[in-house]
Write a structure and sequence with these properties.
Blueprint (H helix, E strand, L loop, with lengths): L1 E4 L1 H5 L9 H12 L5 E6 L12 H7 L7 E5 L3 H9 L4 E7 L2 H8 L3 H18 L2 E7 L12 H14 L4 E5 L7 H14 L4 E5 L7 H10 L4 E4 L19 H10 L8 H8 L2 H5 L6 H5 L12 H12 L1
Parallel strand pairs: 1-2, 1-8, 2-3, 3-4, 4-5, 5-6, 6-7, 7-8
Helix pairs in contact: 2-3, 4-6, 8-9, 10-11
Length: 315
């Protein structure tokens, strides 16, 4: 299994507090040492649009790069692409919605307008030797339109793979509407169409089905997942939504089931424990709260006395 961290972008962009640049760099460096396959470090959007990530260039330039880790960034337009190239991003993550309503609400463009703009960004990336991944938001449902047809998701995937040369596609459950049946079906059908294209699944835990969806995707042939440290993140168009599936919870579950994630879970939990002090509030992570399955607790202080009384009664 390939675990890809999105908390430093998808998570931090949703936070009201600005995490100091030096702390962002230290957090990415800590994540780099856990064995994650990819880290989406930041986003090269307008600093006015997302002030929480206004330090994108500094963070991307000053992180410690470890061999084998892909350092990705969300890139929305040509100016962002130029900034990302200058900052040595390994990969551009381009975002468009599979839903027309969500694309208009989120990006202020029709899907065709987004595709045309992202085609230009992809051409610039290819010219600079930078890999391109495309994330299709609302692939499993739109909060304004309801169900999104699988055929439409596959057609947009085809256009990004065949027409702009994306090396990877991420199918995103942006507002937590996915459930295992459609997840398995879409994963299988995508794999049948593009066996050599990297397929990533990006789930949110809005309705408590994040892990179930991960397992359904694995059964259908997926091996690459986005997750967010501490479970932070969300979407402004899903009122009441919780964050992304939690990195340490997914690694904990998959490790117990015998899957090789390549991730040092103890180091990942240690990184997650930094978050409350950085963002100013608690995090959803149940692993941080309760510990791993075999993180044992001390016996009660009067345990020996309890045992003695119990033995005395039995004699």
């Amino acid at each position: 299994m390939h675990l890809q961290e999105v908390g430093t972008r998808d998570g931090l962009q949703a936070e009201a507090a600005f995490v100091p640049t030096i702390d962002k760099i230290a957090l990415v460096d800590a994540l780099s040492r856990t064995g994650l396959a990819k880290i989406e470090v930041t986003s090269f959007v307008s600093p006015q649009a997302i002030p929480a990530l206004r330090d994108a260039e500094i963070v991307m330039r000053e992180i410690e790069r470890r061999p084998g880790v892909v350092y990705s960034a969300l890139v929305p337009n040509l100016r962002g692409a130029e900034r990302a190239i200058e900052s040595r991003a390994d990969e551009f993550n381009l975002v468009m919605s599979a839903s027309e309503s969500h694309n208009l609400a989120n990006l202020r463009m029709t899907r065709e307008q987004s595709f045309a703009a992202l085609s230009e960004v992809a051409a610039l990336a290819h010219g600079a030797g930078v890999a391109v991944n495309v994330s299709l938001s609302c692939a499993f449902g739109c909060p304004m339109e309801g169900d999104v047809a699988e055929a439409g998701v596959l057609e947009w995937s085809r256009r990004f793979v065949d027409e702009i040369g994306a090396c990877g596609v991420t199918l995103c459950d942006t507002t937590g509407m996915a459930w295992p049946g459609p997840v398995a079906a879409l994963t299988r059908d995508f794999r049948e169409c593009w066996a050599d294209t990297e397929l990533t699944l990006h789930f949110h835990n809005t309705r408590g089905m994040g892990l179930a969806n991960v397992l359904a995707a694995i059964d259908a042939g997926a091996d690459r997942f986005d997750a967010s440290l501490g479970g932070i993140g969300g979407c402004p168009y899903a009122p009441g939504a919780s964050g992304n599936v939690c990195s340490e919870e997914i690694v904990h579950a998959l490790d117990l089931m015998g899957y090789d994630t390549g991730v040092d879970l103890a180091a990942l939990i240690a990184a997650a424990r930094r978050l409350p002090a950085l963002i100013g509030h608690d995090i959803p992570s149940q692993i941080v709260k309760a510990g791993r399955r075999l993180d044992l607790h001390a016996r009660p202080a009067d345990f020996d006395a309890i045992r003695e009384r119990a033995l005395a009664r039995s004699s």
